[in-house]
Amino acid sequence: MWYFAWILGTLLACSFGVMTALALENSEKEKNPNSQ
């Protein structure tokens, strides 16, 4: 069942990357409210 752990780890890494990108986008919007 190594593939199950591999898929789980890959999904976790992808979701962590997406959450980090969204958090960075939010913090940039808060710093520059007049950007868009």
Describe the structure.
83% of the residues lie in helices and 0% in strands. The chain has 36 residues and is mostly helical. The radius of gyration is 15 Å and the shape is rod-shaped. It starts with a helix and ends in a 5-residue tail after the last helix. It comes from Rosenbergiella australiborealis. This is Cytochrome bd-I oxidase subunit CydX. Pfam families: YbgT_YccB.
For the residues shown, what is the average pLDDT? Answer: 88
Low-confidence stretches: none
* Helix proportion range: over 70%
Which percent range describes the beta-strand content?
Answer: under 5%
Report the structural category: mainly alpha
Order of helices and strands: H
Number of strands: 0
The gyration radius over C-alpha positions equals 15 Å
The biggest beta sheet reads:
none
Number of helices: 1
The coarse overall form would be rod-shaped
First-last Cα distance: 47 Å
Protein name: Cytochrome bd-I oxidase subunit CydX
InterPro entries: Cyd_oper_YbgT, YbgT_YccB
Pfam families: YbgT_YccB
Supply the key terms.
36 residues, mainly alpha, 83% helix, rod-shaped
Question: Can you give me a brief rundown of this structure?
Answer:
This is Cytochrome bd-I oxidase subunit CydX. By secondary structure, the chain is an all-alpha fold.
Topology:
Elements: H1 2-31
